[in-house]
Specification:
120 residues; four-stranded mixed sheet; 4 strands
């Protein structure tokens, strides 16, 4: 699961659209209030979250914040500003995460499809 927030990162105040691994409890503190569709939403699919984050970043830039970046990471429930990256690198990582997501979904499907009468 992934959650998207807009952040003014501590301590330098960088403007970043963050894709956090986990639910709302795992985003960095000091998220800005919701302004764009997709903020504070939870996404199961990594590419859906990443595409939404890029859309939010572009909208925030269009509204006058020219130095906005995107980032992805995991706070493990603590404060941990994420390293900003480019759209291209974020999408490349998203493709890898999406492949892993699909593999895990298939593995779960196979384990629930199995019939106990065939187990030894």
């Amino acid at each position: 699961m992934y959650t998207i927030t807009r952040q003014l990162q501590w301590p330098d105040g960088a403007r970043v659209v963050e894709v956090s691994e986990g639910d709302i409890n795992y985003v960095n503190p000091d998220a800005l209030v919701q302004r764009y569709p997709g903020e504070f939403e939870q996404f199961e699919r990594p590419m859906e979250a990443i595409k939404t984050a890029i859309t939010i970043c572009r909208a925030w830039r269009k509204d006058g914040q020219k130095n906005v970046k995107v980032a992805i990471g995991c706070t493990h429930g603590m404060t941990m500003p994420f390293e900003p990256t480019t759209f291209k690198k974020l999408v490349a990582l998203g493709r890898k995460l999406e492949a892993a997501y699909k593999e895990e979904a298939e593995r779960k499907k196979l384990s629930t499809d199995s019939d106990e009468e065939y187990c030894i």
